[in-house]
Predict the 3D structure of the following.
Amino acid sequence: MLTPDTSTLTDEEREAQKTSSTAIKFLPLLIGYFSLQGLTFYWAASNVFTLGQSIAVKVYFKSNPLAVDIPKYWQDMLNDAETADPSKTAELAKVGLAKGASLEELLDNARSHVLVKRMATREASSAWERVKTGGQAEAVSK
C-alpha cells in the first residue's frame, strides 16, 4: 500500500523509495525494542516498590496488632457455633438471630444519626412557582 508505482519514478526517487521501505520494514522491530526497554524498567521498579510496601505493612501490623472489640452477643454466637452440632444449622441460625442487638441498642444507634432537612433549590425559584400554579404566575422581569 505504501509503495508507489516505480515505473514513473526517477533514479533518486527510487533510491529514496528503497531506503524508506527498508526503514518501514524495521520500524516495528525498533518500536518493540524501545518499548521493551522502558516497560522492563517500569515492571521491575513497580514490583520492587510493591514488594517493599507489602513488607513494610506486614512488619508494621506484626509489631502493632489491631485490637478488635467484638460485641458480647457476637462472642456468644461464636461460642455457640464452636460447640453446636453442624447438622443443626437451622437451630444455630435461630440462636444467632435471638442473640442479636437488643431493641435499646438499635434505638440508641438510630438516635445518634441526625437528619438535616434542606429545602430544594428549585422550590425557591420563580420557575418553580410557575410550575406550581400551572403557568399562571407572572414571569419575573430582570
In short: The chain has a mean pLDDT of 75. The radius of gyration is 37 Å.
